[in-house]
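A favour between colleagues. Tell me how you read the following sequence-structure pair.

===
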Amino acid sequence: MNDWSDEETNDPLVADARNFYKVEKWTRDGMRVVDLLYAGSSVDRAHAIFATMHGQALAEHPTYHPTSDARVSGVAPAR
């Protein structure tokens, strides 16, 4: 257990400045972000959101390719 609280934001500029993990939905051509699904300091939460989204997409679209629709990005927050 750590003493750091998980922080979140819905502002992509704040997320970039704080080096938060991000889960973003991208256009199929990979040219721009459609939606910021999560931005925060918890890599576990980012992975859970990505896995949930990835699983739903596979169930709905068997030919779904996750790298064209969603990405997890970020740098570990300095501690």
Observations:
- The CA atoms of residues 21 and 74 lie 4 Å apart.
